[in-house]
């Protein structure tokens, strides 16, 4: 049952979004398709204002991960999934990049590049009951961590330097500034002694770390097994900027930077996963703990356990493969040497009447 626990948490998390929305919160979602491999239908003009329940969004994520939708899903909801997903059940990405962004000005489609193939929808309420999976399902959860260890200056410097390089900006350690350029030619300067600016930088650094960790885990598993992979990121930096600066130019610049970061993140994942991944950006007005339950400790334990099993499998198989390859090479060399010796003996055989070649030949 531990293997299905994480996806149950996902459904409970999405259901929590629905409960929050029933109290006045609004939520929107955008599915992002890979450019090289399509898993989503083209959104029709009449479906631009489409809406889905949390159960339907949960079921869509389940199908994309390669699992069957819950049997409790109503027929109308199944038709709704058919509007979003291509019908081929044998071609699913089995990897989903799920990003939740909080902020009153946060609309999911504003964080998605215009060049991406998307299916956008509003999120309606959901039932409290969360569907589940059987314990045969394999799922890896890569979770984000927005906290930066401020007690270790060396660690903080490395994180911020990596973030600056990723966004083509600069980290000015002596002045406590992180400068990120914008497409307009201007730049956003984050003062790291301000809590809001530091939280925004921490959210960006968390996104980068999650992507790098996901790529590493994917590489570790790709040669052994092919489990479903869920990347769950929780971005609260936009809400922090809004609380500090309101609806100012700083918030608009922050939105542009987040959009660029999401685009770069999905491009990196798309290249590493060879197009077999779908993104899902969910935006809510307030900071919600809906995805909090999905990024708990058991996720890391689950990954470590499977990595240990994979390494044990490699350790067991490697000696067998080595012995078989050695025997094959030795046998091949022996046969080759034997053939060469036989050819040499035949070529140097004396041509006399007593030889084997002329034993049955009658000569005058």
From TrEMBL:
One of its GO terms (cellular component) is endomembrane system. Coiled coil: none annotated. Residues 26-284 form the DUF7794 domain. Keywords: Membrane, Signal, Transmembrane, Transmembrane helix. The chain crosses the membrane at residues 327-347. It holds the Pfam family DUF7794. The keyword Glycosyltransferase does not apply. Residues 1-20 form the signal peptide. The keyword Transmembrane applies. It comes from the Eukaryota. InterPro entries: DUF7794. This is DUF7794 domain-containing protein. It comes from Paspalum vaginatum.
